[in-house]
Specification:
mainly beta
Length: 207
Amino acid sequence: MKRTLRYLAGPAVTAAVVGMATVSYAAPAKAPHDTVTKAGATRVAAAPAWKARAATTVKPTARKNAPAPRIVTPGEQVTAAPGFRLWLTAEGEHWTVPTFPEPQFRSVVDGNIDPNTPGVSLQSETNTNRAYLSGLYYGGKGTASTVEIQTQTGTVHGKLIELPGHPGWGVWYATTHLEPDDDPVDFVSQVTVRDTEGRIYARLKAR
């Protein structure tokens, strides 16, 4: 059985929706002509009939029922597929795949990632007909919510897991079918993690 591994990490491309200040106001009404009453030359002038309204800033809001990462305790194993297991510790991501049952490890404390800069990493391991995908995400603004993986066979929607206490990083994972003519080395072209408002939390362009 053929086993292909690919490890990638790179700078993320981030995007933000900036709230625009909207000012609502009423234009002043045109004052009527002076009027003269029969009782005397009493001039009645109308005051401008307008009042400025306060500026309103429109801010993005979280989507209703937006997904959230699954919170796991350190060492708690998540089974993504038979033989494909993942678990987190304070040091990073651990996982196994059917083609390699020995635990593998991706550190978040060895200095190879900058937790203050949005980023995504990718581990792609395949056999003859299946791809096992996972990686870190970190450094984005807001709360991570969803992950989309662009592959040679289309868009795959994965899942997210994090440790308690908002550590500033988490792990995404997914599995998908591998067609006979798919290139296992360049199977994934892009990974995008979005926040609860639908904005890009972090992105990796693999090719």
